[in-house]
Design goal:
Blueprint lengths: L1 E6 L11 H14 L3 E5 L8 H11 L6 E4 L9 H8 L5 E4 L5 E5 L13 H17 L3 E5 L20 H10 L4 E4 L6 E5 L2 E5 L15 E7 L3 E8 L4 E8 L4
Parallel strand pairs: 1-2, 2-3, 5-6, 6-7, 7-9
Antiparallel strand pairs: 1-10, 4-5, 8-9, 10-11, 11-12
Length: 248
């Protein structure tokens, strides 16, 4: 049905950023040939124009259709003002023809703040997009930077969406199939009712916890299952989670 690459938290401009890691991930993903590549924010460390411009040069190297949303680091120092100029719209949809899925991207960032918020306007946009996707029989994927459900092994919870409860209710009531996020740099999955939530690690920085390594996720969606795989910078790939595909 669909094969998707999900990467996050490049942190271009950070002292912990490693160009060789993002270039290697780009090569791997291009070789895999996904139907779409989704990038869930924090492309830059400080939101500086030159950092976002450099991040854009990396994204141009992907061969697959892209959906990119900003993170809290991208909205620092007026980065929120130049994101659309250099990269993509801050929120929107991506539908790959004949692949049976729609990606709905949301901007959860707030200028110069670490916490996230979707807000009523984007919530309404998300609900309308999900309803339209349901009418078309499409698999519904939501992408945003901030996590909606707390992620284990990340310490004290501070930066979950401020309107997480309302957004979570909208997702569940409208039968979202998959929700992708980043922000915490720890790969993890949850399932709530029939919705799968998956976070990605940092793809190209050493802003890591414990013995974690930089990584990105790949997601294989077929008629029966949703397989989420973790691809680490040391060349290993392992199954992160496997769920029944309830969108049939």
């Amino acid at each position: 049905m669909a094969f998707i690459a999900h990467l996050s938290d490049m942190h271009v401009g950070s002292l912990s950023f490693r160009e060789e890691l993002i270039l290697d991930a780009i090569d791997q993903i291009n070789e895999m040939g996904p139907d779409a590549t989704i990038v869930t924010g924090d492309l830059s460390e400080n939101g500086y124009y030159n950092e976002l411009n450099q991040a854009a040069s990396y994204l141009e190297q992907f061969h697959s259709p892209l959906l990119v949303v900003p993170g809290n680091h991208d909205s620092r120092h007026l980065g929120n003002c130049c994101f659309e100029e250099l990269l993509k719209e801050r929120y929107g949809t991506l539908q790959v023809k004949n692949q049976g899925f729609k990606v709905i991207g949301l901007d959860s960032s707030e200028p110069d703040l670490d916490y996230g918020k979707v807000g009523r306007s984007q919530q309404s946009f998300m609900v309308d997009a999900m309803k339209n996707a349901s009418k078309e029989g499409l698999f519904k994927i939501i992408a945003l930077h901030h996590h909606i459900i707390p992620v284990p092994r990340t310490g004290r919870e501070r930066n979950v969406l401020s309107d997480a409860g309302d957004i979570l209710m909208s997702l569940i009531e409208n039968h979202a199939d998959l929700v992708l996020s980043g922000h915490k740099h720890v790969p993890h999955t949850w399932i709530v009712h029939e919705t799968v939530f998956a976070t990605a690690g940092t793809v190209s920085s050493f802003k890591l916890r414990g013995k974690d390594t930089p990584s990105f996720n790949t997601i294989n969606i077929d008629e029966e299952n949703i397989d989420i795989l973790l691809n680490t910078a040391d060349g290993e790939t392992r199954l992160l989670a496997k769920y029944e595909n309830r969108c049939r």
